[in-house]
Amino acid sequence: MAADPPVIRAAGTVLGRPGAAGREVALVHRPRYGDWSLPKGKAAAGEHPLRTAVRETAEETGVTPRLGPRLPSVEYETARGPKRVDYWAAEAAAADPFSAGDEVDRWEWVPLAEARDRLTYAHDAGVLAAYAELPEHTRPVIVLRHAPAGEKRHWHDRDLVRPLDDRGREEAAVLSRLLHSYAPRRAFSSATARCLESLLDYAFALDVPLVADQSFTLASTTPERAAARLRELLGSPGEEHDGLVVCTHGELVPVLARAACPPDRLPADPSLPKASFWVFHRAPGADGAVVSVERHDVRAGRGDRRGGT
Questions:
Q1: Count of Cβ atoms closer than 10 Å to residue 49 Cβ
Q2: Residue 147 neighbours by CB under 8 Å, 6+ apart
Q3: How far apart are CA 296 and CA 281, in angstroms?
Q4: What region holds the Nudix hydrolase domain (predicted)?
Q5: Predicted confidence band of residue 308 (pLDDT cuts 50, 70, 90)
Q6: Rg over CA atoms, the chain
């Protein structure tokens, strides 16, 4: 009996912006099919779904998106086998001139109220409906566990200065690109070398100040202090527009996750593997509600299915 064909993985966005009469969303026209759809495309080999969504949106519209909450995925059959498309809400972070191509020859900003009638496929309409239920703007609050730093028992200096190992440095570079998908503008870290190094590539690439904070440093804090500091940052001026990422230790990840998110939105065990992170999307305002929760791992796209929940 022949094996079932593998699922074709793809990702895309509902890219939105404020318009004169309310929100507008980007719809793309594909000349090969004569259809109107949401920006999306197939994943490259080993590519994380977050990067697929960003890359494909930029290629099809010229607009580099900043991702927001996860939207429903869509599954359907194609001539080459089953296909799954993961979607995110998004807003524009930057824009380049659009170049028409064989896959997309034009695209338009369409009022949200009219977009449903323009879309060719019913499954796109379901994604659009979920997008319409979200606040117009959300901000990401990211809790990150540092990348691998070797075995503690093999390190004979102060634990404070234990650095990332070769694998950890490789995964920190991947983390930088994944975090760039959300582009938080405030970055805090445990004062340990391994946590700071896990965010260094990201902070340098986006010119974001990286703050070492002993409240998130295992040997210098308590769970209560760490949680209180995160809640303080969530309520500080400017945070609701800039987003936030905090890198810390495995022991403190559940503490910070519970401080950032209501317990009914988290699994019973909110711990993370190394080089993984939670993303809590919050509505505007210092006390904005958590509207979406995701978990991501650098290994997603490379045979690991922990791409997001």
A1: 26
A2: 164, 167, 168, 169, 171, 172, 175, 194, 197, 198, 274, 275, 298
A3: 14
A4: 6-133
A5: very low
A6: 20
